[in-house]
Amino acid sequence: MLAAGTAWWRVAPPPAEPVIPAAPAGDERVERRASVARGRTVDFYTAAPAGHGDGRGLPVCLILHGGSKTAHDFPALGLGRFLTDAANRGVAPFVLAGATGDRLNWQPTGADDPQRMVHEEIPNWCAERGFDATRLAVWGWSMGGYGALLLAQTFPGFVRCVAAFSPAVSPGDNVFTRVDRLRDTPVGLWCGRDDGLYRNVRALEGVLPKPPVAGGYTAGRHNFGYWSTVIPAAFDFIGGMVSA
Description:
- By secondary structure, the protein is α/β, with parallel strands linked by helices.
- It has a single domain (23-243), classed as Alpha/Beta hydrolase fold, catalytic domain (Rossmann fold, 3-Layer(aba) Sandwich).
- It has helices spanning 79-88, 114-128, 143-154, 174-177, 198-207, 224-243; strands spanning 25-35, 40-49, 59-64, 95-99, 132-141, 162-165, 187-192, 214-218.
- The protein has an 8-stranded mixed beta sheet with strand order 1-2-4-3-5-6-7-8, with helices on both faces.
- Helix 1 (79-88) crosses helix 6.
- The termini are far apart.
- The relative contact order is 0.16.
């Protein structure tokens, strides 16, 4: 609702392009890794906040991308800069790690199993880099938001929390039918009110066994212009959970 005396045309619309903080990226890498679970070589992205070296000893937030992006796109989205910005604001530091899952909804499709890659292989790749793979969170947007919720349901206790942006859920899908499996996993849920998935996301919130502990609904569409505005709040949530 607009404040009294505020005309609608004076309210800035949600940004169309990502709003990236000025903070520098730290140790940010895109490597190629052979994934047995996927039967192919994939891009593997990692980022540590500036000032924290190569991230050794830090907990990990797993990233599950949406259908229009891959891990190769993460540096251009400014994810490493958002990470440094969070640490500069006093959020307990953590690293980001994610690999390309293609457009498979982060679930098995024949012999190609991106969910298994996230559950088994990425933590091992992180441990090889010296990250603390015993303290994990998962964050995803759109298709990746669906996959993040599904991962937490499929492997209860695997992650300490889930942050989902505009998850591509719909009543009756696997996330809805297994929603009780999120009972012991803190959930952060964000969606723009102008997003075509808004009603479905609100329906999911209504059936969660416990209310989301973070998140919210503001003006915004299904794009990184909106998602970039809520990354700081999500990183606040994630940092608090993985450092507890």
